[in-house]
Design goal:
Blueprint lengths: L12 H11 L16 E5 L2 E4 L4 E4 L2 H4 L8 H11 L13 H13 L6 E5 L2 H18 L6 E5 L8 H4 L20 E3 L12 H14 L3 E6 L3 E2 L5 E2 L2 H14 L2 E5 L13 H4 L6 E4 L11 E5 L1 H9 L15 H15 L2 H17 L8 E7 L2 E6 L5 H10 L2 E2 L6 E4 L7 H19 L2
Parallel strand pairs: 3-15, 5-6, 5-7, 7-10, 10-11
Antiparallel strand pairs: 1-2, 2-3, 4-12, 8-9, 11-12, 13-14, 14-16
Helix pairs in contact: 3-11, 4-11, 5-10, 7-8, 12-14, 13-14
Length: about 450
């Protein structure tokens, strides 16, 4: 028997693509008939370098996480410095300065009430942890509750507990209906960040919660922006109304800010803009600036006390890579960059540029809506988008976009300059035209 020899990665682009198609299963993609995947061999600033020599502006921030772009000197230095110390250490029975410093920063910026931090290794797991906290909270009170209440149109992750609170009809996980726990779904919040509070929506949600208040452990929602469920914006007043309903019925409020946190909407966090204190808060994605996977679930002292007073005496969760020192070091450096406040002007500039550039999509065939909030720009189409046609149209403009469902959208890095924002908007409009065949 001979030793296994790891094959070298080929430099030839065609061979790279062939090997990828043969062996690599991409997210939400067929293994037997995959859509094209473009090999990336480098990245700097807001640009991705393809293996075929093209450089394109990244309009996606690597799924909304790389808010400072790529190869940022401060974040690179933080990672290198931590590598010289240790790359990982278990968090059971041990701790380290990076985790302590990151927890201290998160408590400081997430608002009054968020005092305890549980680290995990992805956004989906962070939401799973939040759900566990809510369930164990009620067990600690001697009143076990098993159900959650959420709203239509939401998305909270790909793991089983999180899939159960994604939209069961229009969401990406309807295939698993019948396997997942059955929770309660209120109507989707009315569209419009600046819209007045819709009392009919409040009444319908209040009625659903009142009828099931004794069995509901928590209400869980994405505040002001529903991300992968549809890129829809709703008023902060809706979040405040949910807080009031939870208080009236003695139910916990979980806010999922995996997508909205760290400045994406124009505020540090969407719940702060809504002037709402949740009982449990989920953050992730942009927390490490897109360098490493990490999430955190924060809670109030009341939640922690009840969880730990139950029969287990502890929160029953413990990821292997919890509080990974490399991720924590980069996250601390990232939050220090954000603390300078430069992101506020950057996000405002992106919002203005997207509003101006995306106006050209209004009235195009198969365009249902155009909307912008902070560093988020959306062209909603009538019917599913032609992913290949839109992607190729965007690449022809030198921009990487990843459309899905009926959405052509962008969440660019905050450091994207005005000229590149204009280019992204033009690429989105071109994608909308390609989608409509005009």
């Amino acid at each position: 028997m001979t030793d296994f020899v790891t094959p070298g990665v080929p430099a030839d682009t065609a061979e790279l693509i062939a090997l990828d198609r043969a062996h690599v299963w991409h997210p939400y993609a067929s293994m037997t008939d995959p859509t094209p995947a473009y090999p990336v061999v480098g990245a700097s600033g807001v640009r991705l370098q393809f293996a075929d020599g093209r450089e394109v502006v990244d309009g996606m921030s690597s799924w909304w996480a790389a808010i400072h772009g790529y190869r940022h000197p401060v974040l690179d230095a933080a990672a290198r410095d931590q590598l010289d110390r240790m790359s990982h250490v278990m968090f059971g029975g041990l701790t380290h300065p990076g985790a302590i410093g990151l927890a201290q920063r998160l408590v400081a910026i997430t608002g009054e009430g968020m005092e305890h931090v549980f680290f995990s290794d992805s956004g989906s797991v962070g939401v799973e942890v939040a759900i566990k906290m809510a369930l164990q909270y009620w067990r600690g009170r001697g009143e076990p509750r098993q159900r959650l209440l959420t709203v239509r149109g939401g998305y909270h992750g790909d793991t089983f507990a999180t899939m159960a609170v994604c939209d069961p009809v229009g969401g990406m996980h309807h295939l698993f209906t019948g396997v997942l726990p059955e929770h309660l779904f209120a109507p989707r919040p009315p569209d419009g960040y600046d819209a007045p509070l819709d009392e009919a929506w409040v009444a319908a949600t209040a009625d659903l919660l009142a009828r099931h208040a004794g069995e509901v452990a928590a209400v869980i929602v994405e505040p002001t922006v529903q991300g992968a469920g549809g890129m829809r914006f709703h008023s902060p007043a809706c979040v405040r109304a949910l807080r009031e309903l939870c208080d009236a019925h003695g139910v916990l409020l979980i806010l999922d800010e995996i997508a909205t946190g760290f400045g994406r909407t124009g505020a540090w966090f969407a719940h702060l803009a809504a002037d709402v204190v949740p009982d449990i808060l989920c953050v992730g994605k942009a927390m490490t600036g897109g360098y490493l996977s990490m999430a955190a679930t924060l809670c109030t002292p009341a939640v922690a006390a009840s969880v730990c007073s139950g029969e287990a005496g502890a929160l029953m969760h413990g990821p292997t890579y919890m509080a990974n020192p490399l991720a924590a070091a980069v996250a601390c450096a990232n939050l220090d960059l954000l603390a300078t406040g430069a992101w506020r002007e950057q996000v405002a500039g992106i919002e203005a540029g997207l509003r101006a550039g995306l106006a050209a999509a209004d009235g195009l065939p198969k365009v249902a809506d155009v909307r912008v909030l902070g560093a988020i720009g959306v062209i909603e189409t009538v019917g599913p988008v032609d992913v290949r046609a839109v992607t190729e149209a965007a690449l022809a403009h030198g921009v990487w976009l990843r459309p899905f469902s009926n959405l052509i959208y962008t969440m660019p890095p905050y450091v994207t300059g005005a000229a590149d924002v204009t280019r992204i908007a033009a690429a989105m409009v071109a994608g909308a035209r390609a989608n409509a065949g005009v």
